[in-house]
Design brief:
alpha+beta, Helix Hairpins, TATA box binding Protein, subunit D, domain 2, 2 domains, three-stranded antiparallel sheet, 3 helices, 3 strands, elongated, TFIIA_gsu_C, Transcription initiation factor IIA subunit 2
Length: 115
């Protein structure tokens, strides 16, 4: 039997759909409609699915320009804080601007995978 794979839990806390799923599961646990173990299995399935879909299905390209305010590298995670950012989608003349943007980046290898 293959060893279970681990996936980042990042999208649970940083995406609207991940936060909505987590809130809904918390409500179901509070109402005693599901067991916490089932909620953990659902979240693990979400982690796997969202990682696979983003890697395989999303092909859009985005460029951005801005002023790097601060950056850090801690526990294998890069964090960049950028000011006065302009985003442009490939094949589009439209742009979007933001005063501040936080980018969190982690290794594309799953935790526990060999290098």
């Amino acid at each position: 039997m293959a060893a279970p794979q681990s996936f980042y839990e990042l999208y649970r806390r940083t995406s609207s759909i991940g936060m909505a799923l987590t809130d809904t599961l918390d409500d179901l646990i509070s109402e005693r409609r599901i067991e916490p173990q089932l909620a953990m299995k659902i979240l693990a399935n979400f982690d796997r699915s969202i990682t696979e879909v983003l890697a395989d299905k999303v092909k859009a390209r985005l460029t951005f320009k801005g002023h790097l305010d601060t950056y850090r590298f801690c526990d294998e995670v890069w964090t960049f804080l950028i000011k006065d950012v302009t985003f442009k989608m490939e094949n589009s003349s439209q742009s979007v601007t933001a005063d501040k943007v936080k980018i969190v980046s982690c290794n594309s290898k799953k935790p526990g995978d060999p290098q």
